[in-house]
């Protein structure tokens, strides 16, 4: 694929969907192992966002011949965060409304969410919880990726 056909939007949407799917798999594994009631464990899935953003920025930089605009890197992180958290939010809405409404009561009982939490509020909070960290993670990652002496290894 020619470098002019690579856009940061395509890259960030691709990796946003992959990170969102990783969040869903992690959620389902938590359910299978019976630890879904430990709400704090769900924040460990932030590791997927870190990995997804770093890989997305790296692949974008490689596809563009080693050049990346600082703001493109920030946009990749923010967009990856929004897309992945939207995928997860849609899954959570479907999961709560179709399969297990008791999960909402579990969230309301935790100190991390208000007792008046609704499904819509959970959806919005999920997107917010993924969007801001996505931007900040990209800001941190771009401190390394922006330098010209940072080279992306070639694929073998």
Q: What's this entry about, in short?
A:
The chain has 156 residues and is an all-alpha fold. It has helices spanning 8-32, 46-63, 70-98, 102-109, 119-145.
Model description:
- The protein has 156 residues and is mostly helical.
- It has one domain (7-145).
- Helices cover 69% and strands 0% of the residues.
- α2 (46-63) packs antiparallel against α3 (70-98).
- The chain is elongated.
- It starts with 7 loop residues before the first helix and ends in an 11-residue tail after the last helix.
- The mean pLDDT is 82.
> Count the strands?
0
Radius of gyration from the alpha-carbon trace, in angstroms: 17 Å
Q: Please identify the structural class as seen in this structure.
A: mainly alpha
Q: What is the terminal-to-terminal distance?
A: 17 Å
What is the mean predicted local confidence, pLDDT?
82
Helical proportion, percent range: 55-70%
How many individual domains? 1
List the topology elements:
Elements: H1 8-32, H2 46-63, H3 70-98, H4 102-109, H5 119-145
Helix pairs in contact: 1-2, 1-3, 2-3, 2-5, 3-5
Q: Any key phrases for this structure?
A:
156 residues; mainly alpha
